[in-house]
């Protein structure tokens, strides 16, 4: 179980919002961090603390295939994202970077920014005394997530530490 | 039970029948890596510890987003790409030929029935020739470089059937925008869209590309057209039994079927700042514009430039409007040069730029600032895509774009 403070965003949070194109070519994700979510909430990246979670509506991560989007969210220390649904490329990219994504249809409508959630991975999320059931990921994705991302999973496959 | 087109393509490649929800590992025919993602894919490939690229001839590197370079760090991407290609025996590199999604079919790589992955979400474009093609991130691309394969979940399919003749000045862009509006930006998430019907049969490959290109704006994994004689002529292959077999069965099962009568379509806009915020052009008529952009992997093809030129011929772009025209590839640029299209556009006051992604991704010339309005033929109108987050981006067809440029206000062609 882990506890996480909630930052709340809306529906259709696209990858241009998560990280605009002009910052994509920065050599390191550290340099990109201050600009995460800047078109929508320029002050958000500075406020997010390691361990916090993002809660959003439908279609989180729609738009481009830029993997810098989940990488920068992971680099901000976000422990997980809980959304009603995800765009498919973002979903794969997040898992491949070891960023936990949880689909939950009801939680978004009933929580407020600043609330603190208790996450029991693969089981449930508790917020304000209410429990929200969550599903586990398919085995092949769980394997990648548990290895710490696709790079580590491939290194293992290639006989490297 | 019959199979949809995507089930057949994937089934052919893995050698057994598949159904939606199956997770299968597919061999990859084509890997497209664009310039933005090259250094990241290379870095991940190295971190994974692969000694060689599994199938160097399946890899295509294309420099398009950063060309010509506008920021000093951009050229690093070309350098890293060139070094990687040299070291691992990758011969397919396009340094100045145009937009990746135009080139992957135009230059003869992707054919009907192929499986292709690219580091850009508009990789779905290659569905125009009946290929299963979709966007992935650079870490997965690095994995494919090393292994030659990738896992996919076989998607459910949505069938979109359109019959009849489209009204004059309604383009395939108007059709796909309307469909996205009806499906919503997430209505096809994880699914394949199959386009079919007599209207589709009549469309050029270029018009079909506009539609497959935007399938991802409804969240789709791919947007597919059944390959026909036109497809084979475009791909320079015979229309033989193997191609004819790439056809959905009559009893294929769809999660949803949308049917349209072509005569009901009207010119539309995707209004700020969501691609599914669709309204008839007539509703926004009179809105003053600062700039018009004709180009991109959605609408930078010869027929798009010709349509705009026919409207602009003998007329002039409004004095306060900058109209930027960016052909999708060098081949298209040269065709438009030799048939007089570029002359007409230039005479009308258009700014004609080198082929590439240009303004679409906010990297090329033509960036806008607060409260400015742009009518653009590309595929996304997200906040901040072409400058500040207060720029208003309206997506439209080339015909609407040209008519708007002349009037200086949003206008139906």
Please tell me about this protein's structure.
The complex is a heterodimer of chains A (161) and B (413). In chain A, 31% of the residues lie in helices and 20% in strands. Chain A has 8 helices and 7 strands; from the N terminus they run βαααβαβαβαβββαα. In chain A, strands 4-3-2-1-5-6-7 form a 7-stranded mixed beta sheet, with helices on one face. In chain A, strand 5 and strand 6 form a beta hairpin. Chain B has 413 residues and is of the alpha/beta class. Chain B folds into 2 domains: 265 residues, Aconitase, domain 3; 139 residues, Aconitase, domain 3 (2-Layer Sandwich). Chain B is built from 16 helices and 18 strands. In chain B, the strands form 5 sheets. Chain B has a 5-stranded parallel beta sheet with strand order 4-3-2-5-6. In chain B, helix 2 links the parallel strand 2 and strand 3. The longest helix of chain B has 14 residues. Chain B is globular. At the A-B interface, helix 5 and helix 8 of A face helix 2 and helix 5 of B.
Topology (elements, then pairings):
The complex is a heterodimer of chains A (161) and B (413).
Chain A lengths: L1 E7 L6 H4 L10 H4 L11 H4 L5 E4 L11 H8 L4 E4 L4 H9 L3 E4 L3 H4 L5 E5 L3 E4 L2 E4 L5 H9 L2 H8 L4
Parallel strand pairs in A: 1-2, 2-3, 3-4
Antiparallel strand pairs in A: 1-5, 5-6, 6-7
Chain B lengths: L4 H10 L8 E5 L2 E5 L3 H11 L10 E4 L12 H14 L3 E3 L5 H7 L8 E4 L13 E4 L2 H10 L1 E5 L3 E7 L8 H12 L8 E5 L1 H5 L2 H10 L7 E4 L3 H7 L5 H4 L11 E6 L6 E3 L7 E3 H4 L6 E5 H4 L2 H11 L9 E5 L3 H9 L2 H7 L3 E2 L20 E4 L15 E4 L2 H10 L6
Parallel strand pairs in B: 2-3, 2-5, 3-4, 5-6, 8-9, 8-11, 9-10, 14-15, 14-17, 15-16, 17-18
Antiparallel strand pairs in B: 1-7, 12-13
Helix pairs in contact in B: 2-5, 6-8, 13-15, 13-16
């Amino acid at each position: 179980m882990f506890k996480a403070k909630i930052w709340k965003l809306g529906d259709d949070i696209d990858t241009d919002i998560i990280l605009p194109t002009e910052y994509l070519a920065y050599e390191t994700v550290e340099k990109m961090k201050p600009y995460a979510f800047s078109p929508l909430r320029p002050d958000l990246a500075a406020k997010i603390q390691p361990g916090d979670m993002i809660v959003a509506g439908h279609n989180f991560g729609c738009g481009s295939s830029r993997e810098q989007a989940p990488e920068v969210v992971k680099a901000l220390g976000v422990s997980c994202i809980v959304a009603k649904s995800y765009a498919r490329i973002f979903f794969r990219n997040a898992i491949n970077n070891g960023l936990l994504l949880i689909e939950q249809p009801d939680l978004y409508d009933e929580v407020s920014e600043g609330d603190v959630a208790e996450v029991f991975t693969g089981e449930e999320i508790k917020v304000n005394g209410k429990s929200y059931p969550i599903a586990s990921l398919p085995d092949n994705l769980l394997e990648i997530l548990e290895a710490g991302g696709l790079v580590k999973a491939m290194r293992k496959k290639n006989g490297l530490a | 039970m019959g199979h949809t087109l995507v089930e057949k393509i994937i089934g052919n490649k893995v050698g057994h029948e598949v159904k939606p929800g199956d997770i299968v590992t597919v061999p990859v025919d084509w890997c497209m890596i664009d310039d933005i993602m090259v250094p990241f894919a290379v870095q991940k490939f190295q971190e994974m510890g692969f000694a060689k690229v599994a199938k160097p001839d399946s890899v295509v590197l294309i420099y398009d987003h950063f060309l010509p370079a506008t920021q000093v760090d951009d050229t690093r991407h070309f350098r890293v790409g060139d070094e990687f290609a040299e070291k691992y025996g990758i011969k397919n590199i396009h340094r100045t030929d145009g937009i990746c999604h135009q080139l992957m079919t135009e230059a003869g790589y992707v054919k009907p029935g192929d499986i292709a992955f690219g580091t850009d979400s508009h990789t779905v474009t290659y569905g125009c020739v009946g290929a299963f093609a979709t966007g992935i991130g650079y870490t997965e691309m690095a994995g494919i470089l090393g292994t030659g394969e990738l896992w996919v979940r076989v998607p459910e399919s949505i069938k979109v059937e359109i019959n009849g003749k489209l009204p004059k000045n309604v383009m395939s862009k108007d059709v796909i925008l309307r469909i996205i509006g009806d499906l919503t930006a997430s209505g096809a998430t994880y699914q394949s869209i199959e386009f079919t019907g007599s209207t589709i049969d009549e469309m050029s490959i270029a018009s079909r590309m506009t539609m497959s290109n935007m399938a991802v704006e409804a969240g789709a994994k791919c947007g597919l057209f059944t390959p026909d004689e036109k497809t084979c002529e475009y791909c320079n292959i015979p229309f033989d039994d193997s191609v004819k077999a790439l056809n959905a069965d009559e009893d294929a099962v769809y999660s949803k079927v949308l049917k349209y009568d072509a005569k009901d379509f009207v010119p539309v806009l995707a209004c700020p700042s969501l691609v599914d915020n669709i309204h008839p052009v007539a509703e926004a008529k009179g809105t003053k514009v600062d700039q018009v952009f004709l180009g991109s992997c959605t609408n930078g093809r010869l027929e798009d430039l010709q349509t705009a030129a026919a409207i602009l011929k003998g007329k002039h772009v409004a004095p306060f409007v900058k109209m930027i025209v960016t052909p999708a590839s060098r081949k298209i640029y040269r065709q438009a040069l030799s048939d007089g299209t570029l002359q007409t556009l230039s005479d009308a006051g258009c700014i004609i730029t080198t082929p590439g992604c240009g303004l679409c991704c906010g990297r090329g010339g033509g960036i806008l600032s607060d409260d400015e309005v742009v009518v653009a033929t590309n595929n996304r109108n997200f906040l901040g895509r072409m400058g500040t987050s207060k720029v208003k981006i309206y997506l439209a067809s080339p015909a609407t774009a040209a008519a708007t440029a002349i009037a200086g206000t949003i206008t139906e062609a």
